[in-house]
């Protein structure tokens, strides 16, 4: 059965991917849990509309961020988090957290896809983060401190 994944499903498919899966898996697991929907003609049309809307939205965000890259260069954002005595964070800091803090502290709206972060931040201290938009890059610092 052909399905459209509505969420990422480990080992099966990514969000908005159209894929053939076994009938039993689709009917008993994916569809009842709203992880996927049958790939009907109307659903595929809606999928294309949604993909194009998301691409347009991402382009708009890229254009806005491209204009604000010079503003971002060299800035700092701060996180106060709980950490062990060895300096390891109890909860790591992800791209989404950095984007939210950029919006909160610097009033810069970004998409997590534009942030180059190999893995989530898991230690205290200064971390240099690179934002890449349309072949232009800006670096800023994330300072992670212990919450008292």
TrEMBL record:
Gene Ontology MF term list: rRNA binding; structural constituent of ribosome
Key words of the record: Ribonucleoprotein, Ribosomal protein, RNA-binding, rRNA-binding
Domain Large ribosomal subunit protein bL9 C-terminal: residue ranges: 70-145
Annotated InterPro entries: Ribosomal_bL9, Ribosomal_bL9/RNase_H1_N, Ribosomal_bL9_bac/chp, Ribosomal_bL9_C, Ribosomal_bL9_C_sf, Ribosomal_bL9_N, Ribosomal_bL9_N_sf
Top-rank lineage group of the source organism: Bacteria
Gene Ontology terms: biological process: translation
Domain Ribosomal protein L9: 1-46
GO cellular component, one term: ribosome
Family statement drawn from the similarity comment of this UniProt entry: Belongs to the bacterial ribosomal protein bL9 family.
Function summary: Binds to the 23S rRNA.
Name used for this protein in its record: Large ribosomal subunit protein bL9
């Amino acid at each position: 059965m052909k399905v459209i994944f509505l969420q990422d499903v480990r080992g099966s498919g990514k969000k908005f991917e159209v894929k053939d899966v076994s009938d039993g898996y689709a009917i008993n697991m994916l569809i009842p849990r709203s992880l996927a929907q049958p790939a009907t003609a109307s659903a595929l049309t809606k999928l294309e509309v949604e993909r194009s809307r998301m691409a347009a939205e991402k382009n708009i965000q890229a254009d806005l961020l491209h204009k604000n890259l010079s503003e971002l260069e060299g800035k700092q954002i701060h996180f106060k988090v709980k950490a062990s005595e060895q300096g390891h964070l109890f909860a790591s800091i992800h791209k989404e957290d950095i984007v939210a803090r950029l919006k909160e502290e610097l009033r810069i709206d970004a998409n997590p896809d534009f942030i180059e972060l190999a893995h989530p931040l898991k230690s205290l201290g200064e971390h240099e983060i690179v934002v890449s938009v349309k072949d232009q890059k800006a670096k800023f610092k994330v300072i992670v401190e212990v919450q008292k």
